[in-house]
Amino acid sequence: MSLFSMPSEWLVMAVFGGVYLGMALGRWPGLAIDRTGVALIGAIILFVSGAVDARTVIESIDFPTVTVLFALMVISAQFAACGFFEWMGTRISRGRVSRRMLLFQVVVIGGILSAALTNDVVVWAMTPVLVHGLFRSGLNPRPYVIALACSANAGSAATVIGNPQNLLIGQYGGLDFWKFVTVCGVPAIAALAIVYAVIAYARNGVGSASPAAVDAPASVSDAPLKIEPLLKAVAATVTLVIVFSVAEERATWAIAISGALLLSRKMATRQMLSMVDWHILLLFAGLFVVTGALGKVAGTVPALAAAGTGGYLNSPEVLGLISLMCSNTIGNVPLVMFLLSVVREWSEVGLYSLAVFTTLSGNFLIVGSVANVIAVERAAALGVRIGFGDYARIGVPVTLLSLLAAYVWVRLAGPLIVGLFG
Q1: How far apart are CA 383 and CA 390, in angstroms?
Q2: Can you tell me the distance from the alpha carbon of 372 to that of 124, in angstroms, rounded to the nearest whole number?
Q3: Are the C-beta atoms of residues 109 and 258 closer than 8 Å to each other?
Q4: At 398, which helix (H) or strand (E)?
Q5: Which residue from 72, 152, 284, 357 has the fewest beta carbons nearer than 10 Å?
Q6: Are 151 and 341 in contact (CB under 8 A)?
Q7: pLDDT digits 0-9 by tens, 201-245
Q8: Segments making up each domain of the chain, as ranges
């Protein structure tokens, strides 16, 4: 029996509205609860009220997507545990090159790593060592930290495993790995070039970078790179790419790969699993339940029913505008989950557009992407303060130019590429 007398359709919509308001605000006012907590509380309310039952909860959660995301996190944890990110960040920040060449290295390496690994992990691991090395070199880390965040977002747009929203879209549409790279890789590369150009030639970019007003960060460990665990991580990454290229049971293979990584003589399971972002996995589970419930009642609500059959949402113009507005309010992952649960008719080009637009829109403001927030918070912990305006002066032009380039590419080349691949 339901704990509430409110009709289930209206309860579902009320809970959905409350959850997505929490996504936009980052919390519920007056409560010490973050986005993950908001999603979980929403799912709990739906369950205890009887709006969804245990079977519906289980059916709503896309376990293959969650499984693949977990596997990606384990692979990223393997790279982190062997000291790869610290080693890479040290090599970048201590190289004897010009400021613009240093910026080029940050953008290219950040983009490439994020295309193959989880972009949030790349930013989390590389920011502190990058800040420390730049400070020791007498450079202001601010523009380079912003470059790392922006390039991580841009680079992750290139592949179906680059970020959570791409993974969601790829699993939903059964998108081919290399076709995804062909369609989305070009706007991702263009976005990386735009990140470099905007920061390199901005008035407050690297050309005028100095260590003024930056507090000395704590020392970062120079632990040696562990070769054997690194080789395992590289082998796991290559195997995962092959799996996504040829296998149908991606989730099964992905979890097998993560299990093989956990079989280690030197790295404890606790150490590896401590690097998995369980909050993100719980956020996914909660949002799957909330958006799944909304999808089931969408046909009874005229506005949602119209959206579900509206081909206009496959339009690059519409998706670009929606992505820019909503990715910087409710977030790109909640936005993608909502659209995939409500809209029933997606063209293949529409799915690629959704992936690239929601990802590139994340560079607009600090709150547009989890990677941005991680970079800013990790830098702040080391005494480098990046304000909302500091980021926006770079993020806004980067995003608008990137979206324009992506729109032109998707509009002109998207249907042609999809047709060539069959």
Answers
A1: 15
A2: 10
A3: no
A4: helix 388-421
A5: 284
A6: no
A7: 886 665 554 544 444 444 455 567 888 889 999 999 999 999 988
A8: 8-421
